[in-house]
Design brief:
Elements lengths: L23 H4 L2 H26 L4 H12 L2 H6 L3 H22 L3 H16 L3 H17 L5 H18 L1 H10 L1
Amino acid sequence: PHIFSGSPYLADINLGTFYPLNIVYLLFAPFRALTIEVILSYGVAILGAFLLSRRIGLSPIASFYTSIVYIFSGTIALYTNNVSMLHVAALMPFVLWSVISYLQKTSLKSFLIASLCVSLQIVSGHPQITYLTLVLSILLIATFPKISIKNKLKYSFSLLAFSAGMSAIQWVPFVEFA
């Protein structure tokens, strides 16, 4: 209570307190948990990049190479030193994959998966990468062919609104704290 005037960790959006992989800190010693979490984040990044590559039509071998290039890119390698940024960057391909999947097949299931991916990225930590991913997702929706402007607006608003509702446990205390 005497450090930073008792700053509440739950209201700090940079920490990613509600990120599901943080459960490893309850199971292991802190340094071991940090190592496990970084390895799991790399696994999330590999899987997400592979799924995104397959969704946009690359072959399985090209998708594999895309995944390898993504995890060894400067972005992921640099963010290994800042775990909350690594969480968000590892989830970026999942968000883009889910948004493209939703646009290709506008079903309730694909909408819920896209909303879950977006809200998971919101609660995972660093907000700058989340903001950039959301901007890219809206640009994807805006430029997606064969969808009317009315539906593009509806898809963008509904996805953002539902994701905001699902992640309110993180951003509402943050806004109040800020």
